[in-house]
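Attaching the record inline, Q. Sequence:
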Amino acid sequence: MDFLYVTMPLSGVSVFWPGLVILGFGVGVIGGFFGIGGGWMVTPGLNILGFPMAYAIGTDLAHMAGKSLVSTRRHAQFGHVDYRLGGLMVVGTIAGFEAGAQTVMWLERLGKVDFYVRLSYLLLLGLVGWRILTDVHRNHRSPRENGEASAEPAPAVYPERRWPAAWIPPVVRFPRAGVRCSLWWPVLVGLITGWLSGLMGIGGGLIRVPALIYLLGCPTHVAVGTDLFEVAISGLYGAATYTYKGRTELTAALIMLAGASVGAQIGTAATKYVRGERIRSLLGVAVAGCAVSVLLKLAAAVQPHARKTLEVVAAVFILALVAALAAGIIRQFLRGMRAERTASRRPRAAAAR
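Structure, as predicted:
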């Protein structure tokens, strides 16, 4: 069965390449649907498949940048990208990313990078998953979400932000997102998520999409598209930085990108047929499931006698989670297409009569 494994040229590890294909396609679907790079699944997934953490981060960033460019193009066609808002976030993201990358190099020299990055993942995923799921539960029958149009851009109503810091000059309007706030809010969001991106190999969308929704007041679909635009730009910078540091396995990135390019098209198109509330609830489930897989990996590190068993369970769990989420999104996509075709046939049938 040696043909199922490929040796990475830089790290020297032997990797199960069908796992890379499954991970790439599944995360492509999920990333295009949720508007995030998917690094919160890819980086721990690569680590579980055998990559050292620093190489998992660099490889994911290279794969993420290419996939996000494909998804951004599709979201732009639906009118879900606010380029002004995304451009401001990039400014903070680049500065924060370099700080995060230097933190990883420092932890690697200390020999503690795997433990501390996994622990950071666990805390972050748990907090964000809890926040999203509690919000969805509280607003399950919110009139605003039930009336939200999936395919239409948000009206430029510029909702008021309640906190005083939102009005620190200069105040900027973002017409596509339909919000108005201090210019420093998007930069700050970019700075924090950039640091997390450099530290954990995530595109930052795990934090940025909820921040755009809950802090800035962006509609879900615009938050999704705008974040993917930001992920594509910052991901290119991050991939270049980690490649320069010799921590990017381009072979693995290309294997994943082949599947992700197809998956991203499907995931992005699926958002056209799903309400924002449904997208957020699925995102919460995905985040919570990923936290469980990271917890299993941490348990394997502190339980040597059960290490192999726990690592196998963690690998199977993360791949099954990605496959299940991707299958659910594809199902929503196919259901929406059938409903759209049925609706388009009705006027023609009525006219024929």
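Residues 143-161 have pLDDT under 50 and may be disordered. Residues 307-352 form the longest helix (46 residues).

More tomorrow.
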